[in-house]
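User: Just a sanity check before I run the rest of the batch. Below are the structure tokens for the first item. I only need the designed sequence back.
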């Protein structure tokens, strides 16, 4: 904030400052040491947060930090799922994503399946289940597969206090299937009844990971609602903590 020789308030704009000094010299206005309210420097936006944190116990600060982390991840998911457009080099990016998924499909071949949706709350005193969240994203039409539509899915390692442990929780690669409905809630596509290429496979060892379910292009154009089915292997100890759905745009 510009000041006069004795700390008087001055406007930041040079022309306004000259006019302001002229009015003072001619007696139109009085000298002041405080700027008008609408031109004062705004308060430090972080000051309240620091003062609040200083009054918190370590446990309260930890809980507050976890809530802030969840909010930041919400922004990441919005970027990953709600606007899944790829950057420059679209075909190369699509090919890389498809190859990653193909590698994961090959890695889970031969794993015994549990063909049912595992409900939350399976954790027991003898076995710690790893919690995860499934978030449904939008539909994306890849240029490299003109007859396909990709249904975007994000997996979040939800239980931040229980780090992924391959020995304790099993393979980190989780199969996810989808049942797709039209606007009348008639089932139009069920990936669990088709080939394994229609599986989305997320890596739970990452804090957040994305994959996709391949749908015929015509199915994607009629899709209005989706239901997820998580299919861990018999040697995986994981459970869904939250399933987030949204209505698909028509």
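Assistant: Here's the designed sequence for the first item:
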């Amino acid at each position: 904030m510009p000041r006069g020789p004795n700390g008087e308030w001055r406007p930041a704009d040079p022309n306004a400052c000259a006019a302001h000094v002229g009015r003072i010299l001619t007696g139109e206005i009085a000298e002041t040491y405080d700027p008008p309210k609408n031109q004062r420097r705004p308060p430090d936006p972080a000051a309240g947060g620091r003062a609040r944190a200083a009054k918190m116990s370590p446990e309260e600060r930890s809980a507050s930090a976890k809530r802030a982390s969840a909010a930041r991840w919400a922004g990441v998911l919005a970027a990953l799922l709600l606007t899944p457009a790829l950057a420059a080099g679209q075909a190369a990016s699509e090919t890389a994503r498809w190859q990653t998924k193909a590698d994961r499909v090959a890695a889970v071949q031969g794993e015994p399946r549990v063909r049912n949706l595992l409900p939350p709350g399976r954790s027991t005193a003898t076995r710690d289940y790893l919690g995860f969240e499934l978030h449904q994203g939008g539909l994306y039409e890849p240029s490299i597969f003109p007859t396909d539509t990709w249904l975007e899915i994000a997996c979040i390692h939800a239980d931040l206090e229980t780090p992924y442990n391959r020995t304790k929780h099993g393979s980190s690669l989780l199969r996810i299937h989808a049942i797709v409905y039209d606007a009348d809630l008639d089932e139009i596509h069920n990936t669990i009844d088709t080939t394994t290429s229609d599986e989305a496979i997320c890596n739970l060892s990452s804090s957040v990971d994305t994959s996709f379910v391949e749908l015929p292009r015509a199915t994607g154009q009629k899709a209005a609602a989706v239901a997820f089915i998580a299919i861990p292997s018999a040697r995986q100890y994981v459970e869904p903590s939250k399933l987030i759905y949204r209505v698909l745009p028509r």
